[in-house]
Amino acid sequence: MHDNIKIFDTTLRDGEQTPGVLITSNEKLKIALKLDELGVDVVEAGSAITSKDEQQSIKLITENNLNAEICSFARPLKVDIDTAIDCGVDSVNLVIPSSDLHIDFKLQKSRPEVEKMAVDAVEYAKDHGLIVELSAEDSTRTSIDDLKSLFIKTIDAGADRICPCDTVGILTPERSYEFYGELAKLNVPMSVHCHNDFGLAVANTLAALNAGANQAHVTINGLGERAGNTSSEELIMAIDTLYHKKTNIKTELFYEISQLVENISGVVLQSNKAIVGKNAFAHESGIHADGVLKKSETYEPMKPEKVGHRRRFILGKHVGKHVIHEKIKETNTEVTDAQLNEIFKRIKALSDMGKTVTDVDLQATVDDILAIDIENSLKLQEYTSVSGNKLTPTASVKLSINNKEKIEAGVGVGPVDAALEAIRKCLVDVADISLEEYHVDAITGGTDALIDVVVKLKCDDKIITSRSTQPDIIMASVDAYLKGANKIITDKKRR
């Protein structure tokens, strides 16, 4: 593997091709600026020929004079290249179908015709001052001789880099090493572009880099068509931690940019997503948590701070006494061994009943055992909501906050969203609280079912969980939010 691997990020092009994802011009700029801060070498800002809006998005990015090379996807057509030039990009990713399947059925041309199109496009782009990366689409279903012929001719025409693409993700790590190793003999800078159809994109990309590729195509959170592309955070942390090679990436920004892309794209990450998932550094098992508390390396391959993440201990069926004690100490509360044992037994009993044990449940248990009478800092005095098929969902709330009244209104995509927005506005001067996760279950049948709502609230880089069970989903949501917010404010007072 090369000592310094280059990173070509295609979140704004291949990532946006994720079904259901649409990223606006301003959102693309936000992501591009964060990618530049992250340290990627190339940002593929989009495909200029796609639309006027896409051109506007790319121009918005190029006008910001980023340190990264700004690239546009282009077909081997002058109109594509001219449009990219008009957007002010530094380079084009010229994508040429290479397999018989694509040439015969998609293009319906002969191989010599396609090779001439590729050569002409490379020469035209180079004559206009662009850096050219020549990507051969569906390379892994193309004969190696045909692939070499295409690459040699385009390299002679001036292509700066080549990129054999595993377009439908059919490589295995062993075959990837052989495939990219053979093409590395062409002695030109080479990218690897893998798709994740069999869950092997990261493994195949690492194999290609070990075989001689020096640049990897990636997307934040592994976004992309079908099952996605090579995950940026997974690949780069493997390069860094497992292979001890360098990139220009500031890894401590990974969690932040992952959250940004998740929020903008609307593609929710699975909790156990490697590196950036909510549970990537979460521990419930008593044995694991005890080991991590003593020395994090016992059950963590890297420190969460290295990727901008944070460690969390979860209250659940497998929770150990050490975790409970640690969470109690976070609130500057002291307990005896006997009190801790009783708290532990009660939390275990809650878990055995199949309930989600929240931070508020723990606090209530501690307060009960220690006979602490904590007056709620927050009290709901009034709540009203309006919603309908021709009305914007609106809610108003009156809260008592530390014995002072506060009235606010909010709108949202539904009455729950509107109600929580109104509460958030009421609390803005007390604590900067954001809703990290919202989960709802009906725990009985019928239209009058009991509704169980669990929320996760974030404040000052700390996450608090809270739950409420009621027959009204809006009131359950409001109650759960207020319970969590009250714990946050109470903890602040205790500190």
What portion of residues is helical?
25-40%
Instruction: Examine the secondary-structure arrangement and name the CATH architecture of the largest domain.
Output: Alpha-Beta Barrel
User: Mean pLDDT across all residues, rounded?
Assistant: 91
- Spatial order of the strands in the main sheet? 1-2-3-4-5-6-7-8
Output the structural class. alpha/beta
CATH topology of the largest domain: TIM Barrel
Q: Which geometry do the CA atoms define?
A: elongated
* The CATH homology group name of the largest domain: Aldolase class I
What composes the largest sheet? 8 strands, parallel, barrel
Low-pLDDT ranges:
none
Per DSSP, the total helix count is 16
The total beta strand count reads 16
Rg estimate, integer Å: 27 Å
* CATH class identity of the largest domain: Alpha Beta
Proportion of residues in β-strands: 15-25%
Distance between the termini: 50 Å
How many domains?
A: 3
Structural overview:
By secondary structure, the protein is α/β, with parallel strands linked by helices. The chain has three domains: 6-265, Aldolase class I (TIM Barrel, Alpha-Beta Barrel); 282-369, Recoverin, domain 1 (Orthogonal Bundle); 378-494, 2-Layer Sandwich (Double Stranded RNA Binding Domain). Helix content is 40%, strand content 21%. It contains 16 helices and 16 strands. The strands form four sheets. Strands 1-2-3-4-5-6-7-8 form an eight-stranded parallel beta barrel, surrounded by seven helices. It has a three-stranded antiparallel beta sheet with strand order 11-12-13. α1 (25-38) runs antiparallel to α10, α8 (201-211) packs across α9 (232-241) and α15 (415-427) runs parallel beside α16 (473-494). The longest helix has 22 residues, at 473-494. The protein is elongated, with a radius of gyration of 27 Å. The chain starts with 5 loop residues before the first strand and ends with a helix.
